[in-house]
Amino acid sequence: MSDTVEETTRGGRPEEEFDAFYARTYPWLAARAVMLSDNRQNAEDAVQEAYIEAMRRWPEVRACASPEAWVTTTMRRKLSRDGRRWWFRWKPVELTVPAATTASVEETAEALAALRALGTLPPRQRQVVVMHSLEGMSYQAISAELGISVGSVGSNLHKARARLSLLLDVSPELGRATDRLLTRTPKDPLSVALCGAAEWLSAGFRGEGRALRGGTGDGADGIRGRR
């Protein structure tokens, strides 16, 4: 499964285009939201709000170079905005997510290990490491979106990657802010672990065949019911 979402089909009816866009992007976006928030309810709220806003502004969104990037950014901003209300009350909780039924036992174990390790991170560290090591965002882009300095991005990233690397046993050098801990490369073992968890989550949401629990309906029709 690829993390690259297919471009929205052009030329059809707006409602049909949005439905197709939702069906293609929902599992992928829900997986990212869960990894950013470590809370399925918060992920649900952010994803639903992002799609509602996209539906309301669909002519504008569909004209973007990357409609999926627009929805992803909207989702992340919703999580960041809401996170300020519970930031200092944060504590690790058990995360409940849909299982990818087609995954092997080993793939499931590795994905769950990565998700549990993410759940031990404070919210800011988790945001930064997912945005950089999974989504490939630059320090500058993360700084602008989260409203923190580039130095703070680097500091949070180093702490997050050091802890994750230790918990997942993917790096022997954890005591120094080495380039290997801070740099995302195609062969970076931590990025590989996070990508594997994201793919496993996406497959789980896709197999579930409906929107996150708590909506008023399933799929794009459920989004319309909440407008």
Automatic annotation (TrEMBL):
A single GO molecular function term of this UniProt record: sigma factor activity
Keywords: DNA-binding, Sigma factor, Transcription, Transcription regulation
UniProt-listed InterPro entries: RNA_pol_sigma-70-like, RNA_pol_sigma-70_dom, RNA_pol_sigma70_r2, RNA_pol_sigma70_r4_t2, RNA_pol_sigma_r2, RNA_pol_sigma_r3/r4-like, WH-like_DNA-bd_sf
Coiled coil: none
Biological processes per GO annotation: DNA-templated transcription initiation
Domain RNA polymerase sigma factor 70 region 4 type residues, every copy: 113-164
Gene3D superfamilies: 1.10.1740.10, Winged helix-like DNA-binding domain superfamily/Winged helix DNA-binding domain (1.10.10.10)
A Pfam family that the UniProt record links to this protein: Sigma70_r2
RNA polymerase sigma-70 region domain residues: 22-82
PANTHER family (UniProt xref): RNA POLYMERASE ECF-TYPE SIGMA FACTO, RNA POLYMERASE SIGMA FACTOR HI_1459-RELATED
Family to which this protein belongs: Belongs to the sigma-70 factor family. ECF subfamily.
NCBIfam families, per database record: sigma70-ECF
Protein name (Swiss-Prot/TrEMBL): RNA polymerase sigma-70 factor (ECF subfamily)
Organism whose genome encodes this protein: Streptomyces iranensis
